[in-house]
Amino acid sequence: MEAPRERLTLQGFNAEITNYFAEHCEKTESGYKCKKCEAVIQQTTLWVSIHTTLFEECAGYGEVKRFPLPYCPRCEGEPKKISTCVHLAPSEAELQLLGINS
Ligand SMILES: [Zn+2]
Ligand SMILES: [Zn+2]
Asked: Cα of 72 to ligand 2 centre, how many Å?
């Protein structure tokens, strides 16, 4: 999958990843495989800037988190878009910064 679009909430972001697995992947003993072509699902690094809902524009804490970004090497190839941002309410952002929610 390509990186989820910018400015999602944490819930929206998680939902995009969860939906991808639900729609495209099937669990195996060692990981996941593609439902369509059965290739082993690969992961690359997704860079997510943590922004705050306090501001209209993309501004925040200067915090960047890494997440695994799954993709099928056969159907999709390596994702071209590997960075995005999530916009967190201050309380969520605090949790994230403390590493409780990551
Ligand atoms: Zn942003
Ligand atoms: Zn595939």
From this structure: 5
* pLDDT one-digit tens code per residue, 36-78: 999 999 999 999 999 988 888 999 878 899 999 999 999 999 9
pTM of the prediction? 0.85
Selection from 96, 74, 87 nearest residue 4 by Cα: 87
Nearest-CA neighbor of 86 among 54, 52, 44? 52
Q: Of 44, 49, 99, nearest to 76 (Cα)?
A: 44
Distance (angstroms) between ligand 1 centre and the Cα of 94 equals: 16
Task: Please say whether the beta carbons of 34 and 72 come within 8 A.
Answer: yes
**CA of 4 relative to ligand 2 center, distance in Å:** 19
